[in-house]
Design a protein that fits this description.
Chain B: Keywords: Cytoplasm, Cytoskeleton, GTP-binding, Microtubule, Nucleotide-binding. Chain B: Belongs to the tubulin family. Chain B: One of its GO terms (molecular function) is GTP binding. The complex is a heterodimer of chains A (599) and B (462). Chain A is 71% helix and 3% strand. Chain A is mainly alpha-helical and 599 residues long. About 1% of the residues of chain A have low confidence. In chain B, strands 5-4-1-6-7-8-9-14-12-13 form a 10-stranded mixed beta sheet, with helices on both faces. In chain B, strands 2-3 form a two-stranded antiparallel ribbon. A two-stranded antiparallel sheet of chain B has the order 10-11. In chain B, helix 13 packs antiparallel against helix 15. The longest helix of chain B has 19 residues. Classes of the chains: A mainly alpha (599), B alpha/beta (462).
Chain lengths: 599, 462
């Protein structure tokens, strides 16, 4: 009888102990003792039923191991569970031997012999069945097992069992991670790993957020993606990599918590980044950053002037791009799309790790904004020349008029001729509308000019120059640490982006409105200039009306901008904004303006 | 594609200060002033823009974009001897008669008319040799005959022939404290001031009274020579063009530089200040009177009347605009701190009828020129009190004109054969200019000059 039970526990059922049900995908195995076995007492029957539960669990584990599944992670756990079953089988063989020698008699002694498996096998079976039925895959399997293990901290044997299962799971992850880092490829037939390497499609490897294990932050996954990509680049360049991957990967795989994982990944990333840094030619980071600072950010020299001039002349943005190319900036080119010009930095690897494509976008946004402010400033300066010249012409005509009147007294005929000649001018001089228009042009030009001048000073000197020279000196202090350079640059460009207010939708739209008003103003001036040049008689009344409306709008917009900047300054305590506000409101004009608008 | 600027130096004074200016520019760009050859130490790595003021001849020598014009040969011959191969010989004009203008504005003006073709040819040739000409700079004195008369004629001509180009002058105003040898100085000044008012975009006023005061009081020179005073002028001229020649991020063109300074067309007379001052002896900078400089110190000194190169009471009136060109290694935060301090102490008062503040341009320095100070600064300012300078000139003019004294020489010129209306017209223009500057001191300036209430613009002033 005892032999029958031991055989059934080993998986060989018969008439006394039979399988009901047989293990399947939807149901766990069940070993049952046949009814009406005459030699058993009630208590013995109960004991054997308990022992058979262990057999059921072992049978189920064996079934899952034999059937296997699509998930590489779960399969590896099943394999680890196989080791538990093998140990169980060994114990059974020993029990069978002892039973043959009659050292083991009765159901109770059998139960005692199998006592150590009482907790392990059902727990293992339940855990495996749960993972199987939940159709878990990828690192989620690991997470599931870890979660279960944390509920059994009081039982060391169960903990040991779980450790075995976890090891199996971790081994898979370790293999995949090592494969990614060492070969840039992943054995991942069932798409479980959180980094996806496309086949021949030419698609760059990417992080699949939906496959991220619960204990891994997206940032860590991206760091691991970066590490693999950087290592692949280094291998391609036949660079001898001196990194102990095993140690780092072990730390990552066995992290077990978000915090430990973040530390392990960050260490790995920094180590890879340091290795990358050995490939960076000395001084090239500074050269790249100073090129960016000088050209797309600050438009050193004549870049922006020529750029704007060419675009204005040909109404073609490509002309500006061509100019930039002719000026031959080594690290910076420009492109245009849908009328928006952007610098194309795209530095070669490994500098591309300092200026990434996301940061390139930030630079492009800042550049677009700076260029449009500079363009508006340039147009206002051109308008200044036209208005100024017309003002001087009026002075000349006035003094000419006086001469005409004097000559009138000298010779009537000459005066009549002159008077007739100058009559339209004299009439114009006496036209109050003309005078008022001229004053309005002057006043509006001065206001626009000073606002744009101060904005440019703020953007270029207060923000860009400060951040970039700060970055430059920090880079010097960081003594060629590549990971530090990457970090410092990231911080600097985010600072520039934030302080240039590009990210603030309200301020940006207010600024855009002001720039549009400046363009309207310059077109008013051009219109007026044409009439001065060709001696046309435009409708001064409607022009004055239009200009007065523009002035009101500009005062409103610039007052609003001042208010917005003041509120940002007081909320964020930006010292750079404080400088801008001090310069703008030196003689209290803007304060008065906002005060009067509130009234 | 540089923004070229052509310099016209007219008359004795104009040529002298012009020559000092070119000497300074040669030093700053590493060019040998005697032959225009780039010095061995001057490499290509310095990102300066020599081509704004120079062009390269076929033999690659640098040639100033300068026209040297005089009606008598003495000064120009001296320049020819000293700087034999620097200037383009075709750009030198000396009147064939060589008699000068005899301190007579009308003679200078008439001789301009007489030689118009030749002068225009020279200017045209130089303008056509530029890719993207930005404008003209004229150096002259307003008191003599050639600088004032011929200078005035040239200003009218430039205005007429190049309507879209900027015209800036560095105009030396006579010393009004000492008795002048030239009794007709007030006439010449008045007639020139009219042209400076109606034909010029920006006038940098260099007041001989102030220049001499600075030389004696600040530089402790008992009897300053012309060369020493001219050296002060060249320092100012060089500093005011430094952002054009050593481009930074802003103020890279002349129009950008002066547009912010001149809110009203007629009020375009700028005063200057420079600190710390050093005199150049040969190619070396002399010892500075200021031992330690900081941005605040420089900006504060620039506002002190004793450092201004114009003798006017700046304590009265107000600034329409200020542009400080700060040279040297400067941290932008220092600029801000200095501005804050100046504002707290109310060291500069501004107009109330429009936005106004101290604008700052940070300029690089020449790497070839040893500097005795860490920071130096130039102030270009538009201040209403400059009208007092015109008032003095007007007062002196009225004294002479009342007696119709010394007018015969003028009457003998064709321009004044039929009367002296031009004198009256000039006086009127200068008087109006004074009135406009005075009006600009008031918050209701706009309505004052309009003669009517202008609701939109006065609203802000209130």
């Amino acid at each position: 009888m005892l032999q029958e039970v031991i055989y059934s526990l080993a998986g060989f059922t018969g008439d006394v102990v039979f399988e009901d049900p047989a293990p399947s995908a939807s149901e766990a195995a069940g070993l049952k003792l046949a009814d009406g076995v005459p030699i058993l007492e009630k208590s013995e029957r109960a004991t054997i039923t308990r022992v058979l539960k262990l057999g059921s669990a072992a049978r189920d584990l064996q079934y899952l191991r034999d059937v296997g599944c699509d998930s590489l992670y779960l399969s590896s756990v099943f394999e680890s569970a196989g080791a538990i079953i093998e140990k169980f089988q060994e114990d059974l063989l020993d029990i069978e031997r002892r039973a043959g020698l009659e050292l083991l008699t009765g159901a109770t002694s059998l139960e005692l012999a199998l006592r150590s498996w009482e907790a392990i096998l059902p727990e293992a079976s339940d855990c495996m069945r749960g993972a199987f039925e939940r159709k878990l895959s990828g690192p989620d399997v690991l997470h599931y097992i870890q979660a279960r293990s944390s509920r059994s901290l009081s039982n060391p044997s169960i903990l040991r069992m779980y450790r075995l299962l976890i090891n199996g799971c971790e081994a898979t992850m370790r293999v995949q991670l090592l494969s990614w880092l060492l070969y840039g490829d992943i054995i991942d037939p069932n798409d479980e790993f959180f980094i996806e390497v496309a086949g021949d499609g030419g698609k760059a490897p990417q992080v699949r957020e939906e496959r991220l294990p619960a204990w891994m932050e997206s940032k860590n996954a991206h760091d691991l993606l970066y590490a693999g990509q950087a290592l692949a680049e280094m291998r391609q360049r036949k660079h001898e990599i001196k990194i102990d991957f095993g140690q780092h990967v072990d730390a990552v795989v066995a992290a077990g918590s978000e915090f430990a994982m973040a530390i392990a990944v960050s260490r790995l990333k920094n180590r890879v980044s340091e290795e990358v840094g050995t490939l960076v030619p000395p001084g090239s980071i500074k050269e790249l950053l100073s090129s960016i600072r000088d050209y797309p950010l600050l438009g050193r020299g004549l870049l922006w002037d020529l750029f704007i001039e060419e675009v204005d002349k040909s109404l073609n943005i490509e002309a500006g791009v061509r100019i930039a190319e002719e000026l031959g900036f080594e690290n910076v080119t420009f492109s245009s799309f849908n009328g928006v010009t952007s610098p194309c930095l795209s530095p070669p690897w490994p500098l591309s790790e300092v200026v990434t494509s996301e940061q390139e976008q930030l630079y492009a946004d800042v550049f677009t904004m700076l260029l449009s402010v500079r363009k508006a400033g340039k147009h206002v300066n051109s308008a200044w020349l036209a208005i100024h010249r017309h003002g001087l012409l009026l002075c000349r005509q006035r003094s000419g008029k006086q001469q005409v009147f004097s000559l009138y007294y000298v010779g009537l005929l000459f005066a009549l001729i002159s008077f007739a000649r100058f009559w339209p001018e004299i009439r114009r001089l006496h036209d109050k509308t003309e005078h008022r228009l001229q004053l309005l042009f002057q006043a509006l030009r001065a206001r626009m000019g000073i606002l744009l001048e101060n904005l440019m000073f703020y953007f270029q000197i207060d923000v860009v120059e400060s951040y970039m020279s700060g970055l430059s000196s920090q880079l010097e202090e960081s003594s060629d640490s590549f990971p530090m350079a990457v970090k410092l640059h990231k911080k600097a460009i985010i600072g520039v982006y934030t302080e240039c207010l590009v990210g603030s939708r309200v301020i940006s739209s207010c600024l855009v409105q002001i720039l549009e008003q400046v363009e309207s103003f310059t077109s008013f001036v051009s219109q007026r200039e044409r009439s001065w040049k060709y001696d046309e008689e435009p409708d001064l009344g409607s022009m004055l009306e239009g200009l007065e409306k523009l002035e009101r709008d500009f005062m409103r917009s610039s007052g609003l901008l001042f208010e917005l900047l003041s509120s940002v300054k007081s909320v964020e305590g930006s010292s750079n904004l404080a400088r801008l506000i001090l310069r703008l409101d030196w003689n209290g004009m803007y304060s008065k303006l906002t005060l009067s608008s509130k009234k | 594609m540089p923004r070229e600027i052509i310099t016209l130096q007219v008359g004795q004074c104009g040529n002298q200060i012009g020559t000092e200016f070119w000497k300074q520019l040669c030093l700053e760009h590493g060019i040998d002033a005697h032959n225009g050859v780039l010095e061995d130490y001057a490499g290509e790595s310095v990102s300066d823009r020599k081509d704004v003021f120079f062009y390269q001849a076929d033999d690659e020598h640098y040639v100033p974009r300068a026209l040297l014009i005089d009606l008598e040969p003495r000064v120009i011959n001296g320049i020819r001897t000293r700087y034999k191969n620097l200037y383009n010989p075709e750009n030198i004009f000396v009147s064939p008669t060589g008699g000068g203008a005899g301190n007579n504005w009308a003679s200078g003006y008439r001789q301009g008319q007489d030689h118009e073709e030749q002068l225009l040819d020279m200017i045209d040739r130089e303008a056509e040799g530029s890719d993207s000409l930005e404008g003209f700079t004229l150096c002259h004195s307003i008191a003599g005959g050639t600088g004032s008369g011929l200078g005035s004629y040239l200003l009218e001509m430039l205005n007429d022939k190049f309507p879209r180009k900027l015209i800036q002058t560095y105009s030396v105003f006579p010393n009004q404290q000492d008795l002048s040898d030239v009794v007709v100085e007030p006439y010449n000044s008045m007639l020139t001031l009219k042209r400076l008012t109606v034909n010029v975009d920006s006038v940098v006023v260099l007041d001989n009274t102030a220049l001499n005061r600075i030389a004696t009081d600040r530089l402790h020179l008992e009897n300053p020579t012309f060369a020493q005073v001219n050296s002060l002028v060249s320092t100012v001229m060089a500093a005011s063009t430094s952002t054009l020649r050593f481009p930074g991020y802003m103020n890279n063109d002349l129009v950008g530089l002066i547009a912010s300074l001149i809110p009203v067309p007629r009020c375009h007379f700028l005063m200057t200040g420079y600190t710390p001052l050093t005199l150049y002896e040969g190619d070396r900078a002399g010892e500075s009177q200021v031992r330690k400089t900081s941005v605040l110190d420089v900006m504060r000194r620039l506002l002190q009347p004793q450092n201004l190169m114009v003798s006017v009471p700046v304590k009265k009136g107000c600034y329409m605009s200020i542009l400080n060109v700060i040279q040297g290694e400067v941290d932008p935060s220092q600029v801000h701190k200095s501005l804050q301090r100046i504002r707290e102490r109310k060291l500069a008062s501004f107009i109330g009828w429009g936005p106004a503040s101290i604008q700052v341009a940070l300029a690089r320095r020449s790497p070839y020129l040893p500097q005795s100070n860490r920071v130096s600064g130039l102030m270009l300012a538009n201040h209403t009190s400059i009208y007092t300078l015109f008032a003095r000139a007007l007062n002196q003019y009225d004294k002479l004109r009342k007696r119709n004294a010394f007018l015969d020489n003028y009457r003998s010129e064709s321009m004044f054969e039929n009367g002296l209306d031009e004198f009256d017209s000039s006086r009127e223009v200068v008087h109006d200019l004074m009135e406009e500057y005075k009006a600009a001191e008031y918050d209701d300036y706009v309505s004052r000059v309009m003669g009517t209430e202008s609701p939109n613009t006065t609203e802000i002033a209130r």
